[in-house]
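Weekly structure sync, notes
Attendees: PL (lead), two postdocs, one rotation student
Agenda item 3: pending single-chain targets
PL asked that the sequence for the first pending target be pasted directly into the notes so everyone works from the same version. It is reproduced below exactly as submitted, 502 residues in total.
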Amino acid sequence: MKTLKLRKVSIDTYKENVAYLHRNCPLYRSEGFQALNKIEIRDGKDTTPVIAVLNIVDDENIVAVDELGLSEQTFMQFNATENCSVFVDHASPPTSIQLVHAKIAGNRLQQQDFLHICKDIVNNRYSKIEISAFLVGCAEGGLERDEMLYLTRAMVETGKTLSWGEPMVVDKHCIGGIPGNRTTMLIVPIVAAHGMLMPKTSSRAITSPSGTADTMEVLAKVNLEPEELRTIAHHQRGFIAWGGTANLAPVDDILISVERPLALDSRGQMIASILSKKIAAGSTHLLIDIPIGPTAKVHTQTEALKLRKLFEYIGDRTGLDIEVIITDGHQPIGNGIGPSLEARDVMQVLNNDPLAPVDLKEKALQMAGRILEFDPDVRGGQGYHLARDLLESGRALQKMQEIIEHQGANTLSTEPAKFKFEIISPIKGRVQEIDNLQIAHIARLAGAPMDKTAGIDLHKKVNDQVAEGEPMYTIYAEFHADYQFAKSAALKNSGYTIESIK
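Predicted structure, written out during the meeting:
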């Protein structure tokens, strides 16, 4: 077969292999290639071929007629040099696609079935359309609890796993949906100051105004290689870093990249996603926070209890010691929403600043206390008091400063962005409700998390009294266009419900 010259096309296709062929390429005409076909690319050596989705272009400035273009991810995976000769052929459909069809039809899959699907996904044999079909099959047909266990195991097995060489490695996870809930950045230094190992790999925001990694990045570098993290954990007993460099449960990252735009929120997929990452990260003991509230991810106590049973079921069968707590998710936690504003709150709590948000401090102490009680030397019921002593004595602050120094301190400003607008109460009254989803939406419109200093600073919480014309919160934006978008959205729907007081 005729060869083509390889060309790197500087397009980030995020978690999907994409190749580009000119419409007038002789191979396009003779081999019957079509847009969105999957093709197999080889370099003529005895190396594993790369699978990519084909896009057709009409501009020779992108790809010439004798070239094959590869997106950034695909080019990196192919591990070749530009202008080298490559062979292109039709790719055979992934052999596991019949299992996806079976799941869509409502059939129950086995351990080997999920492993087969995950191997094909991680090897880029699935297009995003085929991944969507798998996700919809799991969401609509539902996953039985054994299927959740099988999917969790399969996602762990198809990625790397970390081992810390210690019998106890603690972690925590919140299922999300609550703006400003930055307890992790307080829990890690408290627990590490006690001497327990808490290597925290965290995510960046996908649909929220900030993830833990986005907020920590205001203070320290978070893009660290696994060996760097191992060294920091050895010296400091903890870190807070982005988990994307460790290749832990990579299938989960691929599934999420398709799941979020589709607004799919499958219970089984969520549980497998959380636990596969924790198992791959080498955790042995895990605290899970399930906030409940009308605008949280989980709305009722009954739903939360069902989730708790599922987490505990899978934990028991994967050797992960899990404790699940159900918390109040009726409103944001802390005052700041957005990376810099959240980092400010965290440092205020660590510094025992009287301006520190009490709700953030108390929730972090409660959760840190539960984690400290994983330590057999800490008696049940004593964890909270120990956590409070570690915070109020300044030992947690010192530990956080050491972690920041070892990760590499950043000098990003924690001052709010330059454009600001106050959302005021239309009446005298009491704050009855705060809509988490709307507040998060406004903060994102303001530019968070891409603009670290953008977001919302809350001045009033549920049950607070407010005078007519008094600010309920302030919007901050770095760019005028974002400022206008956020201001307009907030004026239409502030996210606050005020009960009138005569």
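Discussion points:
- The mean pLDDT is 94.
- The CA atoms of residues 282 and 383 lie 23 Å apart.
Action: rotation student to compare against the earlier draft before next sync.
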